[in-house]
Design brief:
mainly alpha; globular; Ferritin; 236 residues
Amino acid sequence: MLPLKVHPTVALTPDYDSADYREAYSRLNGIVIEGEQEAHNNYLRLAEMLPQHRDELLNAARMERRHQNGFQSCGTHLGIEADFNWAEDVFSPLRERFAAASAQEQLVPCLLIQSFVVECLAIALYNAYLPVADDFSRRVTETALKDEHEHLKLGQAWFKAHFETVKTEIQAVNQTILPIVWQILTRIGQDAARLGMDLESLEEEFTIQYGETLQDIGFSFQEVLSMSSYDNAMAA
């Protein structure tokens, strides 16, 4: 397990009606809705690539659709329209990477992107958001967070069963994907801070969750440190 630093809980409740909050919320609400849409689409494609797990993956896709509807309701509750254009642009590099692998029937990058990267990113973002969420959004987020942990286990089970065969490919794919993740976190960071979220905690939460997931499937602690390091990823 990677070392965990304790970050102070945000003490002040955000002003949900301020223009600054509403603008930032519009962007991040767009991010989570777009992220759930991407996850839904990815699981549908994975169900085609892994027919022996079709039912589980289709169920995951349905759950991601429910999350998407829930986060849309969060915006409606606050009277804020999500900025989908910005969100689509932020997600485009990861979406294009999945699409390129999918077109070539490359299962490992597709499964790694959705079952590890997207899920760990969602878990990190939702955990960082909960302390500053309004009551309605908190309930929706808590439900989604529980489901994302279950989805993470789907990919873990497959990678565990095939670890020795795909280990080298995972390491290679990881080098091309993690820089995209850090770019996404950088782009959402300013708006996350405007919502009162702890940006350092957000980045660390992703690193810890992703690292623990890699360890769970068979990577050593030292291998995980190398694979999930920000400096190593950005230098790749």
